[in-house]
Amino acid sequence: MTGESRIERIYEQVVRRNPGEVEFHQAVKEVIETLGPVLVKHPEYADQKIIERICEPERQIIFRVPWVDDRGEVQIDRGFRVQFNSVLGPYKGGLRFHPSVYLGIIKFLGFEQIFKNALTGMPIGGAKGGSDFDPKNRSDAEVMRFCQSFMTELHRHLGEYTDVPAGDIGVGAREIGYLFGQYKRMTNRYESAVLTGKSPHWGGSLVRREATGYGTVYFVDEMLKARGQSIEGHSCVVSGSGNVAIYAMEKLQRLRGSVIACSDSGGVIYHKSGIDLDLVKRLKEVERRRIAEYAQHHRDAKYIPGGSIWDIPCEIALPCATQNELDEAAARRLVANGCLAVAEGANMPTTPAGVRVFQEAGIAYGPGKAANAGGVATSALEMQQNASRDTWSFEHTEERLQEIMSGIHRNCHEAAEEFGSPGNYVLGANIVGFRRVAEAMLAFGVI
Ligand code: GLU
Cα of 328 to ligand 1 centre, how many Å? Predict the structure, then answer.
């Protein structure tokens, strides 16, 4: 059987075995459809059914999360942890709290995480978890009670050598604090490295907060450099206004890019003279408000309710909000408006048809599993610091992050050339990540 037809059969089987999990199907397809040439080069991967094994999570945990809201009403949410692959290290990946969460979302994220984590070169396996709990409009006390209930079940599946969660959408420093507190209480162990994204006051790493956004910008910078260009003087739009978007904008501004738009699920802020990042940080990080309020502080800024940020002409576009936020039509508009580079701060934000548009147009396109790997890489640096009971300076940690991102870029770039598709970072990232996981799986035998 040819590599291609084998891969088609594997995909059909994944769809059959995981009905209705469309995001998971999409993530699997996007990875395995690039692996045909690798199977030709390494028939032992096919013999040992490496791809088939990778597509089946090692363990999936689904649990009830009951808690009592401020009005005294009992609420029941659903918790998930999908421990996908642990050949390279303990399961590692964030927790997402968002009403759209169901098993298919967690599986797509966990599957992506395997390859992303492998790409970092660090000793971390792949996992993801979360809940359909909606933290929006919930009080601090409600979020705390939810986190405590969530961890009351999850703690038995975690450990610094077993599974190390972190944040994702809806899970930031506040939630990690409540989760860590409850883990410590349940286990009677101060096991710092069981969670990452902790506050630097009690075991967290400096730069972890900034790392995903900074890393995405380092990646776009590398892609542009490879084409003899740079960020300086280019117009940039960044979707979202959460943790990833904020620090992507910060690094773009430091590298003298001109950031003119950001967004949230309600709409878009277009500010031609440049986004006021201190204001975005205050609104989003401190006051937990909507981005619409930005326009009340800057008369020359325009708020477009329900608008698409991809309508705004720009040279650099960073999707940093959520999956499938950039479709084929949006990709066409970006290309028509002269966009040079797209790098994904979010996980799988571009639809497969959108990706094809970028590839056909020949613009620099960095897929999430490479471009946003700086977050989880810095989580691995946090684990290193915890293991050695040490803390590193901001400068040292950021230097490590920058080295890791340029290493990821170099490896993806080289693999794309090796497999005859220069500049194709999708192919490069999938192949580099997959090979590392596949080699470890071969070494461990059939497990
Ligand atoms: N949720 C982040 C990601 O998508 C970070 C995971 C982590 O730090 O473990 O990679």
Answer: 26
User: Which residue numbers are catalytic?
Assistant: 128
Residue with tokens 């949410």: 77
Residue appearing with tokens 């260009």: 229
Model-level pTM greater than 0.85? yes
Residue labelled with tokens 């950039």: 326
Per residue in 360-407, pLDDT (tens digit) is 999 999 999 999 999 999 999 999 999 999 999 999 999 999 999 999
Find out whether 251 and 220 touch, Cβ atoms under 8 Å.
no
What domains sit in the chain, N to C, each tagged with a CATH number? 3-54 (no CATH), 59-190 (3.40.50.10860), 209-371 (3.40.50.720)
pLDDT digits (tens, 9 = 90+) for 190-246: 999 999 999 999 999 999 999 999 999 999 999 999 999 999 999 999 999 999 999
Ligand 1 pocket test, pick from 91, 162, 168, 179 with the greatest ligand atom count within 8 Å of Cβ, gives 168
Q: How far apart are CA 366 and CA 405, in angstroms?
A: 12
Is the distance from CB of 433 to CB of 54 less than 8 angstroms? no
Whole-number Å distance, alpha carbon 376 to ligand 1 midpoint, is 5
In the 3-class helix/strand/coil scheme, how is the chain assigned residue by residue? CCHHHHHHHHHHHHHHHCCCCHHHHHHHHHHHCCCHHHHHHCHHHHHCCHHHHHCCCCEEEEEEEEEECCCCCEEEEEEEEEEEECCCCCEEEEEEECCCCCHHHHHHHHHHHHHHHHHCCCCCCEEEEEECCCCCCCCHHHHHHHHHHHHHHHHHHCECCCEEEECCCCCCHHHHHHHHHHHHHHHCCCCHHHCCCCCHHHCCCCCHHHHHHHHHHHHHHHHHHHCCCCCCCCEEEEECCCHHHHHHHHHHHHCCCEEEEEEECCEEEECCCCCCHHHHHHHHHHCCCCHHHHHHHCCCCEEEECCCHHHCCCCEEEECCCCCCECHHHHHHHHHCCCCEEECCCCCCECHHHHHHHHHHCCEEECHHHHCCHHHHHHHHHHHHHHCCCCCCHHHHHHHHHHHHHHHHHHHHHHHHHCCCCCCHHHHHHHHHHHHHHHHHHHHCCC
**258-264 and 235-239 beta bridge pairing:** parallel
Cα–Cα distance, 285 to 258 (Å, whole number): 22
Pocket of ligand 1 from Cβ distances under 6 Å: 92-94, 116, 166, 168, 196, 347, 375-376, 379
CA distances from 410 to 120, 222, 342 (A): 12, 9, 17
